[in-house]
Amino acid sequence: MKSLAELAAIREKMQSKVILREGSGDIRVVVGMATCGIAAGARPVLNRFVEEVSAAGLSDKVTVTQTGCIGICEYEPVVEVFEAGKDKVTYVKMTPEKVSEVVEKHLKGGSVVSDYVIKG
Fold first, then answer.
1. pTM passes above 0.85
2. What is the pLDDT of residues 68-110, one digit of tens each?
3. Which of 85, 77, 91, 83 is nearest to 108 (CA)?
4. Nearest 10 degrees: CA dihedral of 89, 103, 18, 48?
5. What are the DSSP E strand ranges found in 40-103?
6. Closest CA relative to residue 72, chosen from 45, 103, 94
7. 116, 100 in Cβ contact below 8 A?
């Protein structure tokens, strides 16, 4: 960083990600970020959700946030999707690569990606 303009550009870029993570969209994506989740790779999953939701133009509709322990450590990284009037969807053993499909099919298209959902 060599100038205030460069710093302002970085701030502007990061501000959109902060808004996405603190927003009040109709859909809430929650990534489990307790120590077990972080150890299993939840941080790259969270970051990819933020990037993909923003790139898909869903920032006004989807909020991406984190939580502590969800309680199913053996299935980490765990991602829960909450939508008003619908049952919660719990995605398990998530990877950054799976995020693109969930964003495209579920968050954008409205169809749950059943291959990644916990089987009960």
1. no
2. 999 999 999 999 999 988 999 999 999 999 999 999 999 999 9
3. 83
4. 100
5. 62-67, 79-83, 89-91
6. 94
7. no
